[in-house]
């Protein structure tokens, strides 16, 4: 028996991916963050950030929470705000899926949508942040969680995600694969590993076209992976390798994951699966690998799991997940 819906955030299970990597010679274990009540790993920082601000008096009964999000963080905040009776304004952009907007509204969130990119940077993210700043000026006492710099973001993974995962795998993790976005998960988990003296090799998984581990920007289709900026939360010294994964590889990883393990997961989960595939020849026999699957696949039914969407962007590529794994390029060092 739990106290409330928020009390079941965290303590997510771990399962082996025995079929997907049956002949790999090493073990891969997946932490199922999609089983948080709001459907993603972002439930963790959303709860910690809001409830910490409430304890510190920065959020009161009449406060308005204002945040920029393309999906999961907004939904996590909407859940927390609905529980605590707080008003939430979520600033999204034209690429935010209709499904995510429907979920946000179902929780009672108000939607502000920016229709075009920032004229200076050409980025939708910056346009969303500009609108957040405007709302903060207009609304007295408004609170900005600011997931991009708030240290409670990585703290939620230091105290929760990684501590749980280390215990679940009895302290033996040779490789940890983590998708990047705000880098809260990456920094929180990697900091825990370093401070506990664990020898885990941390592998960041980034999107081709993201500016987190590259200076070459290009269009990206998969939300929740990569960013159009270098997140202030990132400590590159904590990361040993970076694997860049394309949009098509995200699709292939997602499709292989559901076909072999019956796990319907989101785009960044497909990315970490393919990152393991890219390093397959470098991972020693007997090694223990952990991957974090950040969210559920239902939010991607109109994109990554839609045959028409996949064909329109990539052509006839079904053989990539129906047949034996395709050869993928090696990963680059950070």
What does this structure look like?
- The protein has 334 residues and is of the alpha/beta class.
- The chain folds into two domains: 5-35 and 157-310, Rossmann fold (3-Layer(aba) Sandwich); 43-138, Rossmann fold (3-Layer(aba) Sandwich), CATH 3.40.50.1100.
- 35% of the residues lie in helices and 15% in strands.
- The protein has helices at 43-55, 72-84, 98-106, 124-138, 152-168, 184-195, 247-261, 267-278, 307-314, 319-322, and strands spanning 14-16, 27-32, 64-68, 87-93, 110-114, 175-179, 201-207, 241-245, 288-293, 332-333.
- Strands 1-2-9-6-7-8-10 form a seven-stranded mixed beta sheet, sandwiched between helices. A three-stranded parallel beta sheet has the order 3-4-5, sandwiched between helices.
- Strand 6 (175-179), helix 6 and strand 7 (201-207) form a beta-alpha-beta unit.
- Helix 1 packs across helix 5 and helix 5 (152-168) crosses helix 6 (184-195).
- The longest helix has 17 residues, at 152-168.
- The radius of gyration is 19 Å and the shape is globular.
Short summary of the structure?
By secondary structure, this protein is of the alpha/beta class.
SSE blueprint and pairings:
Elements: E1 14-16, E2 27-32, H1 43-55, E3 64-68, H2 72-84, E4 87-93, H3 98-106, E5 110-114, H4 124-138, H5 152-168, E6 175-179, H6 184-195, E7 201-207, E8 241-245, H7 247-261, H8 267-278, E9 288-293, H9 307-314, H10 319-322, E10 332-333
Parallel strand pairs: 2-9, 3-4, 4-5, 6-7, 6-9, 7-8
Antiparallel strand pairs: 1-2, 8-10
């Amino acid at each position: 028996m739990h106290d409330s819906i928020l009390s079941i955030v965290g303590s997510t299970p771990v399962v082996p991916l025995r079929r997907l990597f049956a002949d790999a010679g090493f073990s891969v274990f997946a932490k199922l963050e999609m089983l948080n009540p709001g459907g993603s790993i972002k439930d963790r920082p959303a709860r910690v950030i809001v409830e910490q601000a409430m304890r510190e008096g920065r959020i009161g009964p009449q406060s308005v929470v204002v945040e920029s999000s393309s999906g999961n963080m907004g939904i996590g905040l909407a859940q927390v705000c609905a529980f605590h009776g707080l008003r939430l304004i979520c600033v999204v952009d034209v690429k935010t899926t209709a499904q995510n907007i429907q979920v946000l509204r179902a929780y009672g969130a108000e939607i502000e949508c920016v229709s075009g990119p920032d004229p200076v940077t050409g980025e939708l993210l910056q346009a969303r942040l500009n609108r957040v700043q405007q709302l903060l000026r207009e609304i007295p006492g408004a609170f900005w969680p600011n997931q991009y710099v708030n240290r409670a973001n990585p703290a939620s993974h230091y105290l929760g995600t990684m501590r749980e995962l280390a215990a679940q795998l009895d302290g033996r993790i040779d490789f940890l694969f983590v998708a990047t976005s705000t880098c809260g998960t990456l920094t929180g988990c990697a900091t825990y590993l370093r401070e506990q003296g664990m020898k885990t090799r941390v592998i960041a998984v980034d999107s081709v076209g993201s500016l987190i581990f590259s200076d070459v920007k290009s269009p990206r289709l998969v939300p929740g992976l990569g960013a159009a900026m270098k997140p202030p939360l990132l400590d590159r010294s904590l990361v040993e390798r970076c694997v860049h994964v394309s949009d098509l590889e995200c699709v292939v990883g997602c499709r292989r994951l559901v076909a072999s393990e019956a796990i319907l997961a989101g785009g960044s989960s497909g990315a970490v699966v393919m990152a393991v595939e890219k390093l397959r020849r470098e991972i020693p026999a007997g090694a223990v690998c952990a991957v974090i699957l950040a969210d559920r696949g239902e939010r991607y039914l109109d994109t990554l799991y839609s045959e028409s969407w996949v064909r329109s962007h990539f052509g006839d590529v079904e053989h990539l997940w129906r047949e034996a794994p395709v050869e993928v390029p090696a990963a680059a060092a950070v």
